[in-house]
């Protein structure tokens, strides 16, 4: 089993900066297509699936290695090394952003810059920190998932995608339901119990923070914290609803990424 097959790595393009896209919980690399494809011809694109998601090799899931997000970060480091095109511009969504942050702190030589879409270093509140959830909130969320994943996806999809994005809700729910239930539950606990504030505060690379104006999972005050603690952060709050603006408003995400990469707008780049 090679690293490239383990993580179902796909590389396209022959010129320009190397953009590596990292998906979030319940997703796979396909959730980035509506944005990634727009950089065809001006960048090299690397897409992959975290172990247990999409068309990755789920037999490579290791409860010990993947007991925290550091195991997924080690996977990511191996992916970048196997592709051999670093340093990369890392573009990560949600927990996929956290995984990239940890990897970039461990191996900054493999990264040129970061773009974090609706990221959160910690979902639960703590002394001096607002994550948006109480421990009881997370316990209830995970208990519902343990009971019935299909019911859980139906319940949380409007918050994830926004109340009006019915097709996006359906796509995301279907993606979650394709994941092995045991792996999905494990990854959910790893995600919602994570506390990676130290890693975020240790980032030294240029970092674009892309927030959604109305995001139940990563409210704007979480972005406030990241903006204060990442020295080279530049922040854009998108006028969007939900946790997945790359799926619901790809035009806005693409435009922000082009500015981050110092690429011309799409109509001028054609």
What is the topology?
Elements: H1 3-6, E1 10-12, E2 18-22, H2 33-36, E3 44-47, H3 69-83, E4 88-93, H4 95-106, E5 111-117, H5 135-147, H6 149-161, H7 166-178, H8 181-192, H9 197-201, E6 207-214, H10 220-229, E7 233-241, H11 245-248, H12 250-261, H13 266-269
Parallel strand pairs: 2-3, 2-4, 4-5, 5-6, 6-7
Antiparallel strand pairs: 1-3
Helix pairs in contact: 3-4, 5-6, 5-8, 6-7
Description:
- The relative contact order is 0.15.
- A seven-stranded mixed beta sheet has the order 1-3-2-4-5-6-7, with helices on both faces.
- Strand 4, helix 4 and strand 5 form a beta-alpha-beta unit.
- It is α/β, with parallel strands linked by helices.
- 45% of the residues lie in helices and 16% in strands.
- It has a single domain, classed as Rossmann fold, CATH 3.40.50.1820.
Q: Quick one: overall form?
A: globular
**Mean pLDDT level:** 92
Task: Report, as a whole number of angstroms, the end-to-end distance.
Answer: 40 Å
Main-sheet strand order equals: 1-3-2-4-5-6-7
Which regions have little confidence, pLDDT < 50, spanning 5+ residues? none
Instruction: Quickly give the structural class.
Output: alpha/beta
Q: Mind telling me the CATH superfamily name? A: Alpha/Beta hydrolase fold, catalytic domain
Overall radius of gyration: 17 Å
Write the element-wise H/E pattern from the N-terminal end onward. Answer: HEEHEHEHEHHHHHEHEHHH
Q: What's the architecture, going by CATH?
A: 3-Layer(aba) Sandwich
User: Can you tell me the number of structural domains?
Assistant: 1
Total beta strand runs: 7
DSSP summary: helix tally: 13
Residues in helices, as a percent range:
40-55%
Q: Might you state the CATH topology name?
A: Rossmann fold
Percentage of β-strand residues: 15-25%
Biggest sheet character = 7 strands, mixed
């Amino acid at each position: 089993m090679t690293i490239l097959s383990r993580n179902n790595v796909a590389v396209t393009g022959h010129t320009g900066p190397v953009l590596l896209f990292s998906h979030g919980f319940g997703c796979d690399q396909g959730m980035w297509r509506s944005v990634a494809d727009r950089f065809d011809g001006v960048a090299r694109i690397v897409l992959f699936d975290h172990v247990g998601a999409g068309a990755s090799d789920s037999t490579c899931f290791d409860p010990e290695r993947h007991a925290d997000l550091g195991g997924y970060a080690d996977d990511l480091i191996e992916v970048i090394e196997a592709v051999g095109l670093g340093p990369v511009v890392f573009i990560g969504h949600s927990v996929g952003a956290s995984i990239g942050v940890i990897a970039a702190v461990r191996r900054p030589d493999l990264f040129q810059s970061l773009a974090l879409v609706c990221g959160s270093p910690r979902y639960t509140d703590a002394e001096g920190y607002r994550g948006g959830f109480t421990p009881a909130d997370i316990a209830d969320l995970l208990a519902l998932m343990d009971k019935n994943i299909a019911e859980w996806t139906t319940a949380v999809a409007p918050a994830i995608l926004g109340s009006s994005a019915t097709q996006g809700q359906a796509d995301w729910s279907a993606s979650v339901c394709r994941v092995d239930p045991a792996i999905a539950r494990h990854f959910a606990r790893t995600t919602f119990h994570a506390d990676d504030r130290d890693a975020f505060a240790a980032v030294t690379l240029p970092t674009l923070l892309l927030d959604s104006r109305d995001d139940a999972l990563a409210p704007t005050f979480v972005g406030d914290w990241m903006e204060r603690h990442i020295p080279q952060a530049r922040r854009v709050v998108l006028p969007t609803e939900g946790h997945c603006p790359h799926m619901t408003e790809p035009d806005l995400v693409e435009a922000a990424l082009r500015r981050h990469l110092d690429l011309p707008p799409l109509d001028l780049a054609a």
